[in-house]
C-alpha cells in the first residue's frame, strides 16, 4: 500500500499514481500519508473514513459525518527533515483539524465543533502525529469507545483516551450537558504542556474559547494501551488461540551509537533497498537469504500464526500494514489475554 522502496519506487515529481482498492467488507477509521522520508510530517496526510451502511453499532449514535472527524497532529515550524537533525525534536505546536496556537504566536481561531442538544455524536479521532503521544478529552463529557484502528469494539466508557501516532478511535459523546462551551483538549508528554484546546457547545452554538489558565489535564478514568480494558465486538479470540505460534520473533530496539537520530532493530539499521522488495519477490526472491540484512525483510509461511515480542523501543509505535493483530500482553504487566484481547494495527513498542 505504498511504502517507498518496499511495494514500489516513490512517485516522481510531476507524476501521479492511482490506487484502486478492493475494500470488500472493510470499513472504519483510517488515514493516508506519504511514506517517503518525513514528507507526511510537513502535511501530506489526512483522515480516510470508510462508512458502513450496515454498521452493527449504528444504534449507539445519531450523527457521523465529515464534521465529526477530529485529527490530532504535531507541527514543526521548519521542514521536518531539518527539525529532525537533532535528537527527539520537540514540536513547535499541536493542531486539531489543522488549527492551533503556539507560545508567542498569533491568536488564530481555534477549531470549532457544533452540536445539537441531546444528540449522540460519533467522533472519529485520528492521530496524524510524527512522534507525539497524546491524551484526548472533552471537558465534562465521557467518551464511549466503539472502534479502535478500524476494529469495532464492545462499548467502553472513559474520561480520556491515550492515543499514539497513527492510532484511531471512534467515541460516542452525548450532548446532554447544560448549554455552554466545553473545552476539547489534547496534551502531550514529556513536556506535559497544553498543545491545543477548543470549545464545544450544545444547541448548535459555536465553540467558544476558555482561557488557557482554566484548562487542566484530566485525572479521570483514562484508556491505556493494555490488554484487558476493552474487547473486539466480534471474533475476539486471537489467531491460534492460546496455543504456541507457528513463528516467533523478538524485536529488540536500541539507539544507533553511530547516528544521532537513528535506531537499530536486532542490531541492524534499516536501509531502503535499491530495488523495491515487492519487485524482488515478483522476480523470484523467496527466502531470507535473497534479501540483504539491512532490508529487514522476513519471509513467513503462508497462513501461519506469528508472535512478535518487543524489547525496548521507548514507547515507539509499531504499525502493521494491511493487517490487524491481537495485543495479548502489555509491558505494564499482567498475564496474557487469550480470550478477548484488543485488536488493532498500531501498538506501543
Task: Please characterize this protein's 3D structure.
- Pfam families: Cu-oxidase (PF00394), Cu-oxidase_2 (PF07731), Cu-oxidase_3 (PF07732).
- Keywords: Copper, Disulfide bond, Glycoprotein.
- This is Multicopper oxidase.
- InterPro entries: Cu-oxidase-like_N, Cu-oxidase_2nd, Cu-oxidase_C, Cu-oxidase_fam, Cupredoxin.
- This protein has 349 residues and is mostly beta strands.
- Strand 15 (247-255) and strand 16 form a beta hairpin.
- The chain has helices spanning 80-83, 277-282, and strands at 28-33, 45-50, 69-75, 93-96, 113-114, 120-127, 134-138, 143-148, 151-158, 160-163, 168-174, 181-188, 193-201, 222-223, 247-255, 263-265, 306-311, 317-319, 325-326, 343-344, 346-348.
The largest sheet is: 6 strands, mixed
- Which residues form runs of ≥5 with pLDDT under 50? 190-221
Strand order of the largest sheet: 4-3-6-11-8-9
Kindly report the average pLDDT value.
Answer: 82
Q: CATH class of the largest domain, anyone?
A: Mainly Beta
Classification by helices and strands: mainly beta
Determine the fraction of residues in helical runs and give it as a percent range: under 10%
Amino acid at each position: 500500500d505504498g511504502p517507498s522502496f518496499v511495494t514500489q519506487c516513490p512517485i516522481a515529481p510531476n507524476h501521479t499514481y492511482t490506487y484502486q482498492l478492493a475494500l470488500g467488507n472493510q470499513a472504519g477509521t483510517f488515514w493516508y500519508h506519504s511514506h517517503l522520508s518525513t514528507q507526511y510530517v510537513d502535511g501530506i496526510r489526512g483522515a480516510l473514513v470508510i462508512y458502513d451502511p450496515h454498521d452493527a453499532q449504528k444504534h449507539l449514535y445519531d450523527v457521523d459525518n465529515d464534521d465529526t472527524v477530529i485529527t490530532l497532529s504535531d507541527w514543526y515550524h521548519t521542514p521536518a527533515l531539518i527539525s529532525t537533525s537533532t535528537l527527539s525534536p520537540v514540536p513547535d505546536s499541536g493542531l486539531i483539524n489543522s488549527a492551533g496556537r503556539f507560545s508567542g504566536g498569533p491568536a488564530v481561531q481555534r477549531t470549532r465543533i457544533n452540536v445539537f442538544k441531546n444528540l449522540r455524536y460519533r467522533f472519529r479521532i485520528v492521530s496524524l502525529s510524527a512522534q507525539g503521544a497524546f491524551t484526548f478529552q472533552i471537558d465534562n463529557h465521557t467518551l464511549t469507545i466503539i472502534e479502535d484502528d478500524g476494529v469495532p469494539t464492545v462499548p467502553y466508557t472513559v474520561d480520556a483516551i491515550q492515543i499514539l501516532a497513527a492510532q484511531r478511535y471512534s467515541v460516542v459523546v452525548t450532548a446532554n450537558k447544560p448549554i455552554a462551551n466545553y473545552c476539547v483538549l489534547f496534551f502531550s508528554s514529556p513536556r506535559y504542556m497544553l498543545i491545543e484546546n477548543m470549545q464545544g457547545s450544545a444547541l448548535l452554538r459555536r465553540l467558544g474559547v476558555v482561557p488557557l489558565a482554566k484548562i487542566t489535564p484530566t485525572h479521570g478514568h483514562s484508556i491505556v494501551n493494555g490488554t484487558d480494558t476493552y474487547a473486539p465486538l466480534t471474533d475476539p479470540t486471537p489467531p491460534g488461540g492460546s496455543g504456541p505460534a507457528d513463528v516467533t520473533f523478538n524485536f529488540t530496539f536500541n539507539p544507533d551509537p553511530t547516528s544521532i537520530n537513528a535506531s537499530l532493530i536486532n542490531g541492524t539499521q534499516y536501509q531502503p533497498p535499491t530495488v523495491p522488495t515487492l519487485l524482488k519477490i515478483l522476480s523470484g526472491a523467496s527466502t531470507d537469504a535473497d534479501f540483504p540484512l539491512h532490508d529487514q525483510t522476513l519471509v513467513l509461511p503462508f497462513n501461519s500464526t506469528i508472535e512478535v515480542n518487543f524489547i525496548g523501543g521507548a514507547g515507539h509505535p509499531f504499525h502493521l500494514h494491511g493487517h490487524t493483530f491481537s495485543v495479548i500482553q502489555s509491558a505494564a504487566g499482567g498475564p496474557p489475554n487469550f480470550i478477548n484481547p484488543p485488536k488493532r494495527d498500531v501498538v506501543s513498542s
